[in-house]
Specification:
The chain is α/β, with parallel strands linked by helices. It is 45% helix and 25% strand. Strands 3, 4, 5, 6, 7, 10, 11 and 12 form an 8-stranded mixed β-sheet that branches. It has a two-stranded antiparallel ribbon with strand order 1-2. It has a two-stranded parallel sheet with strand order 8-9.
């Protein structure tokens, strides 16, 4: 069959309305169109199917034998289209699927737990899988398609293509309280030559940025410990008399108790920029788009 000749849904709806109301005038009124236009649709369908579908009578119209045979099949087609439309709208309003999110440690708590609770409440058919890693790994996963959404950090001032800036935070120096007697107030990068540091495991964007700036100023960093996660670095600062560099928002969350003190780092000020990106390895489905939208709103409100 040549599908170009197949009647469109408006023609089938016209047939259905006339068959139901047994009147061209009433069917045209229900459909909100002129009777002449409706008559042309019916004539077009009869031409396509090769036979008369209605008998014209003084009281209106009646189905022919062909019309009676076709009516249940046309109604089934319209019912299927209605169901398909409702299913599609349901998928958009309440999509289903698994979404894998990669997030840097500094953004994982309490954002992920709160986000997961909201997603379960508003979109219960989305299954969320969260993996935590440093930024370089997350960007690799985004590029390879392993994860659909990534939250990662950069330390330069330029924009990241295909990503949206969620927040930015200045780096601060965190010290074990009472061990290193630095003057109160801001400190410059040069002070790092005097302090043993606990930093994230390399390769790491923060470590690379600080190392590059220190090298330009002829400052030799004393990295005494590298930790694979924030908890290890924190323990090293608290128990091994090491210092660390973290963004202000993380310092206020993880280093706010009496065991630590902090100094703002200046000359230069180093800012961490946190970005959200949806992977471009394949087109984002409805579940991924919804997840990214909710996550974006929550992260900005954080």
């Amino acid at each position: 069959m040549n599908y170009d000749e197949f009647p469109d849904l408006r023609v089938l709806l016209a047939f259905s309305a006339v068959a139901e109301h047994r009147s061209l005038t009433l069917a045209a009124s229900v459909l909100g169109e002129a009777q002449s236009s409706l008559s042309r649709r019916i004539s077009s369908l009869e031409t396509t199917l090769g036979g008369r579908l209605f008998h014209r009578t003084g009281r209106g119209v009646m189905l022919t034998e062909l019309g009676e045979r076709l009516e249940p099949r046309i109604q089934a087609i319209l019912s299927d289209v209605t169901a398909l439309t409702e299913d599609a709208r349901s998928e958009l309003d309440n999509p289903r699927g698994e979404v894998e999110l990669g997030v840097v440690p500094g953004m994982s708590k309490p954002l992920v737990s709160k986000f997961c609770a909201q997603l379960r409440r508003d979109y219960p058919r989305i299954r969320l899988k969260v993996v935590e890693a440093y930024s370089g790994e997350i960007e690799k996963w985004l590029a390879s398609g392993r994860i659909q959404i990534g939250i990662f950090n950069r330390y330069g001032s330029g924009k990241v293509r295909g990503a949206e800036l969620l927040m930015q935070s200045e780096l601060v120096l965190v010290l074990p309280r009472g061990v290193y007697h630095l003057a109160l107030g801001d400190v410059t990068l040069s002070v790092l030559s005097e302090l043993p540091l606990a930093l994230p495991t390399r390769p790491n964007g923060l470590v690379s940025r600080v190392s590059d700036l220190a090298a330009r100023q002829g400052i030799a960093l004393k990295i005494g410990f590298e930790g694979g996660n924030g908890a290890l670095v924190r323990d090293a600062v608290e128990h091994a008399e090491l210092c660390t560099l973290v963004p202000m928002h993380l310092a206020e969350k993880d280093y706010s108790d009496a065991a630590f003190e902090m100094r703002r780092l200046v000359k230069p000020t180093i800012r961490q920029h946190t970005w959200l990106a949806v992977g471009s390895h394949r087109p984002a489905d409805a579940a991924t788009r919804i997840t990214a939208s909710v996550l974006r709103m929550m992260a900005k409100a954080k």
